Automatic annotation (TrEMBL), chain A:
<dbReference type="InterPro" id="IPR050901">
    <property type="entry name" value="BP-dep_ABC_trans_perm"/>
</dbReference>
<feature type="transmembrane region" description="Helical">
    <location>
        <begin position="235"/>
        <end position="254"/>
    </location>
</feature>
<feature type="transmembrane region" description="Helical">
    <location>
        <begin position="193"/>
        <end position="215"/>
    </location>
</feature>
<feature type="domain" description="ABC transmembrane type-1">
    <location>
        <begin position="63"/>
        <end position="254"/>
    </location>
</feature>
<dbReference type="Pfam" id="PF00528">
    <property type="entry name" value="BPD_transp_1"/>
</dbReference>
<feature type="transmembrane region" description="Helical">
    <location>
        <begin position="63"/>
        <end position="86"/>
    </location>
</feature>
<keyword id="KW-1003">Cell membrane</keyword>
<keyword id="KW-1133">Transmembrane helix</keyword>
<feature type="transmembrane region" description="Helical">
    <location>
        <begin position="98"/>
        <end position="119"/>
    </location>
</feature>
TrEMBL record, chain B:
<feature type="transmembrane region" description="Helical">
    <location>
        <begin position="267"/>
        <end position="290"/>
    </location>
</feature>
<dbReference type="InterPro" id="IPR000515">
    <property type="entry name" value="MetI-like"/>
</dbReference>
<keyword id="KW-1003">Cell membrane</keyword>
<keyword id="KW-1133">Transmembrane helix</keyword>
<keyword id="KW-0813">Transport</keyword>
<feature type="transmembrane region" description="Helical">
    <location>
        <begin position="162"/>
        <end position="183"/>
    </location>
</feature>
<feature type="transmembrane region" description="Helical">
    <location>
        <begin position="7"/>
        <end position="28"/>
    </location>
</feature>
<feature type="transmembrane region" description="Helical">
    <location>
        <begin position="216"/>
        <end position="233"/>
    </location>
</feature>
<feature type="domain" description="ABC transmembrane type-1">
    <location>
        <begin position="69"/>
        <end position="289"/>
    </location>
</feature>
Length: 269, 300
């Protein structure tokens, strides 16, 4: 009986802490007029999909831009981090510990410093407003994380596995592709999911490295939507709900990877 | 095996190249920029005169500097104190298994996974002075007069008094899941046998927390607090979306100020200088933490 009391209390806690998400959902379904009443409606009784229509109408391009940037970031991050982690975990590279320590430290550099600097660099290269610039900038945050995560996973792969392949005459590259990559699939999924999520959520690089002339990711879309004089909360909250979908999917589909990813970002080894 | 060493370097090469090009060069570039009069014109002419420490002098003598430092400190301390305390309380609560404990705990991760712009937008809507749910709730509970002398709606986002609490509140909400997960992991690692022994000795719940949980959790506590510090000191999205650093710079921190200098005033040199000061502060805290950790380890 006491256990169920805990469950009830747990439900209350979750209800309170996740209330803002319910409130976002509620507002996304209410007509703008209803949102401006003195006492708000707790449920979207007279619901409308207008907000979603407005969101899809005006934010579609931003959503597509975010998908391209996020997938690109996943590709670049894994392409760089997978071989590096293999080298650090399975082959004895000199200076390996230094590289790992550097990965931990660079994650502490404030994003604004990177943004400031990358803006001038990409400016000279004519890359402002390009997908490439955003993908490369977002990768600065995801690559160190992915290397730490994949490295700690690959440390657990018995060296005999790759050594056996090498003895059989396979090249290092062949060993990497046909042994290490398949065995590391789960860790790759985790690193990939987090890279996607980071790039999807990025706002700082998105707002500094694009001018809005060619494209803008969804986070900047929401920001500009918010800045409108006539704040259309129904449309903004519908856009916010759409922008939350990847996070929600991740939580439902890959729950155990999430905790693994969170802790490996924080604790080395 | 030399071939193995060569292969190792080959596999590591893309990452090394990336570090040098995308971390090494930008950091170096930022250092150079902070010593230059770098403006929009510099982009076209390629000409940015060297000015030594002039940017740092300009920044430090700007009245905004002290303000930004004070705001950064209050934002950081306020956020971390509550995130940590609430996160620890929740970790302890969910550490006892009960039906649904795992599912409920993982639902609490959602705020951490959401884009910060989304969280910021939601809170901005909830804290709206006239139509926000927070003021509606305060009104319904007859608490408005406690926060606002007139008893009217609290101007969360438009007053210099309430905007800082508003952004801190938002950031606390964002940060609770991280504290919860890491501290929960730390609690899980404490062997049950220690609690059983303490219970046999007749220790009550508080004594068990004070003499078993807290000392054994200390390494994890240190990590959580240090990472919290490093993350919070550079928060950008939450403040930009909820208040934009306003009103009247009441929520301007070193990060948002650096952004404003570079991308609003186009004084890239000064923006870089503030960024470097931010790095210095973060590194300083890191060193301080390392020293404290070592001292407490020596003392133990």
């Amino acid at each position: 009986m006491r256990a169920y009391g805990r469950t009830a209390l747990g439900l209350v806690i979750v209800g309170v802490l996740l209330f803002p998400l319910y409130w976002m959902f509620n507002a996304s379904l209410q007509p703008s007029g209803a949102l401006l009443k003195p006492s708000p409606d707790l449920f979207p009784v007279a619901g409308t999909l207008d907000g979603y229509r407005a969101a899809l109408g005006t934010q579609q391009g931003h959503l597509v831009a975010s998908i391209i940037v996020s997938l690109g970031t996943v590709a670049v991050s894994l392409a760089v981090a997978m071989p590096a982690s293999y080298a650090l975990a399975q082959l004895e590279v000199r200076g390996g510990p230094v590289v790992l320590f550097a990965m931990l430290i660079v994650q502490m550099i404030p994003g604004i410093v990177m943004a400031n600097s990358l803006y001038t660099v990409f400016g000279h290269l004519g890359l402002i407003d390009s997908y490439l610039a955003l993908i490369l900038a977002d990768s600065t945050a995801t690559i160190p994380f992915a290397i730490l995560l994949l490295h700690s996973f690959m440390m657990a792969i018995p060296k005999e596995l790759s050594e056996a392949a090498l003895v059989d005459g396979a090249s290092h590259w062949r060993t990497f592709i046909s042994i290490i990559v398949p065995v590391s699939r789960n860790a790759m999924v985790t690193a990939g999911l987090f890279s996607f999520l980071f790039a999807w959520a990025d706002f700082l690089f998105a707002i500094t490295l694009t001018t809005g002339q060619t494209f803008e990711p969804i986070t900047v879309g929401i920001y500009r939507f918010l800045g409108n004089q006539s704040a259309d909360w129904n449309g903004i909250m519908a856009t916010a709900v759409l922008a939350s979908i990847p996070a929600a999917i991740l939580l439902v589909v890959a729950q155990r990877y999430v905790v693994a990813g969170m802790t490996s970002g924080a604790i080395k080894d | 095996m030399t071939s193995q060493r060569a292969a190792g370097l080959a596999f590591l090469f893309p990452a090394l190249l990336y570090i040098v090009v995308f971390f090494g060069y930008p950091l170096f570039n930022n250092l150079v920029m902070s010593a230059q009069d770098y403006t929009v014109k510099s982009f076209y002419t390629g000409d940015a005169p060297f000015v030594g420490f002039a940017n740092y002098a300009a920044v430090v003598h700007n009245p905004m500097f002290v303000r930004a430092v004070v705001n950064t400190v209050s934002f950081t301390v306020g956020s971390i104190a509550f995130q940590f305390t609430i996160g620890l309380a929740l970790a302890l609560f969910f550490n006892d298994r009960f039906p649904g404990s795992d599912t409920l705990r993982s639902l609490l991760l959602l705020p951490w996974l959401l884009p910060l712009v989304v969280s910021g937008a939601v809170w901005r809507w909830m804290l709206d002075q006239d139509h926000g749910i927070v003021n509606a709730a305060l009104r319904a509970l007859h608490l408005s007069h406690l926060l606002h002398p007139s008893g009217g709606p609290v101007p969360w986002l438009t007053s210099t008094t309430w905007s800082m609490p508003a952004v801190i509140l938002t950031n606390i909400w964002v940060g609770i899941p991280f504290n919860l997960v890491i501290l929960h992991g730390g609690l899980r690692a404490i062997p049950d046998s220690l609690y059983e022994a303490a219970a046999l000795d007749g220790a009550n719940a508080w004594q068990r927390f004070r003499h078993v949980t807290w000392p054994l959790l200390r390494p994890v506590t240190g990590i959580v607090l240090m990472l919290g510090l490093v993350y919070t000191i550079k928060v950008f999205d939450v403040i930009m979306v909820v208040t934009g650093g306003g009103p009247a710079n009441a929520t301007q921190t070193l990060t948002t100020w650096s952004y404003g200098l570079s991308f609003r005033d186009f004084a890239f040199g000064q923006g870089a200088a503030v960024g470097n000061i931010l790095i210095l502060a973060a590194t300083g805290f890191g060193v301080l933490y390392a020293r404290l950790a070592r001292q407490s380890m020596d003392a133990a």
